[in-house]
Description:
This protein has one domain (7-106). Helices cover 13% and strands 47% of the residues. It has one helix spanning 92-106; strands at residues 7-18, 21-31, 39-45, 53-59, 70-76, 79-86, 114-116. It has a 7-stranded antiparallel beta sheet, with helices on one face.
Amino acid sequence: MLNKPKIKTAxxxxxxxLGIFSIVVLGDIQSEDGRRYHHVLAAxxxxxxxxxxxxxxxPSPPELAARGAVCMRIIMADGEDVLGADDEWIDxxxxxxEGLTLVKTLLQLSDEEAFxxx
Length: 118
């Protein structure tokens, strides 16, 4: 996967089970890719060795700063995109809630409930 976060160290802040996916939300991140991450959500399908989807909370670029201090970026095998900006995503719970909603939609898991493990 191109452009996946190159995380050197991080602390798991939240863990969820969502159907056949394990979701982890990381904080206190040191990366080796030149980006500053507030949080990273990674979704791993059972049996897979690596995440197939990442959502990141990063400082907003200048063109989005008026909409919020933190932007959310999605990274998948077929590319990446910035989804928007919001001041609330600096908070791990707000980011995790929005991230889980997006993951449910993207992976067509609307009938599944996310169970918090950590």
